[in-house]
## 1
Amino acid sequence: MKKTFVFDACALIAFFNDEVGSDIVEKLLEKAMSGKTDLIMNKINLLEIYYGVYRDDGTKTAESVLQTIKKLPIQVIHSMSDEVFLEAGMLKAKHKISLADSIAVAEANIRKSLLVTADHHELDRLEELKAFKAYWIR
């Protein structure tokens, strides 16, 4: 059975910026290209990347990054299931994390997958509480 990973925005940001952990993301992308694993990202987390690039570098670069992501072996989840909706709402209310992070964690939890992330600032506390399982890239 193939392992599934859910991507948080910071994982792909690290990859595109060649930051620490980009090699781990690259290996996961290679495994997905060869059919050994599945990669998933909620569209809300994709939006985090888009608006950050748009804000910092403008429309043209943001569109280019978006087109590049669409070519990667990552399945973008375009709608939110009721399970993810309820899980994300509970996580947001209970743990006071960002909405986008609550959605990423909820996607991982509902899919019984690891969340690929580097967001220690928001998520260390949740991992300590065993609220989700992380695949830390740094």
## 2
Amino acid sequence: MLAVDDAPGDRLTRPVPDVRARATAAARAAVEKQGAEIVVLDVGEIISITEAFVIVSANNTRQVRTIVEEIEASLKRDAGPGPRAVEGLDDASWVLMDYGDFIVHVFLADTRAYYDLDRLWADAPRVEWEPAAHAT
């Protein structure tokens, strides 16, 4: 995922080139279904299991599921792979979509406030991104 061995015993790590683009595409897909308080965090320097987190809030479980479906469909339309795993759809208060190089967290607002990943990962830089412009 991250590491490239340039020489024996010398380990060089680099992010996958399209991680930022795919994570922000997931954020834009969440916007399409009225996801709220969307942040993209660059966690690659802090943890070794992934490069980015996308964190999204929703008003109810139906919206959580709708956002999850839109993210998955949108990323597949862009010819990307589907998630490795999706956890939490039964309860839909916190759905985790594991894409390997980034992870999407879709929360009910109260659940997000309770777990407060934003505070937990406050040291991670926020990735600047813009919602897609709508064609007029």
## 3
Amino acid sequence: MSRIGKAPISLPNGVNVDLKGSTVTVKGPKGTLQQDIHPDMIVDLDDGVLTVQRPSDSRDHRSLHGLTRALINNMVVGVSDGYVRVLRIEGVGYRAAMNGKQLELNVGYSHPIYFDPEKDMSFEVEDRGKTIRVFGIDKQMVGEIAAQIRKTRPPEPYKGKGVRYDGEYVRRKAGKAGKV
């Protein structure tokens, strides 16, 4: 039995779940998310607790069991608390700034790079343009936008300059040895 799949999902106050066919809609204080799940998966709602069950122990149903429960749990957490991803900018002259709701990055190119927030997302710049926070209710979208921001200038191994996730370790190289 899937350890993740059999765990119940308790709904916080203010979160409503609507089950129609194979579509799960979760509404909360931060917004609304909708997800189509596999029609074989059985989702039950009793007294503010969601449970996901599988019809058989076939390989496909076992693999979908934990996935379905995790996707629904991510939606519940997203509409109640939200998700945040923190990025740090290292390097002389590298900085970020807010241009209205748009994120503006200056990371060593001849031009600034702009990122528009998706629906139900926002950016925040702190620490004099060296820290970027990506906020949103959709866990997948927050991670995707953070990855796109990091991709503009990934950290390089010699000086460590670039955009990295908070807490990311960048393996450093020694560089040239020089003549003796």
## 4
Amino acid sequence: MNAVTPSNLNPSRLLAHVGFADTLARGIALVRAIGPYAAIEIILPGGTLLALLFWLYRRYQRGEPLPPVIARLGSAMRLHG
């Protein structure tokens, strides 16, 4: 029988299962978020640039801040351009 009883419940093993499930859920969410951009990048010529622009536009629509590297690059381009 596979019933969970207090006598065979190991807290460290339970935490390991919960940690694995959490990591798996995060990985699946990441793949679902990146999937369309990866398809654009693979299928279209110049797809890397298009995927990056679509990703940035989607973040802009949601009101999310730019990633720090891209924000610094943009400010540097404004200063020198």
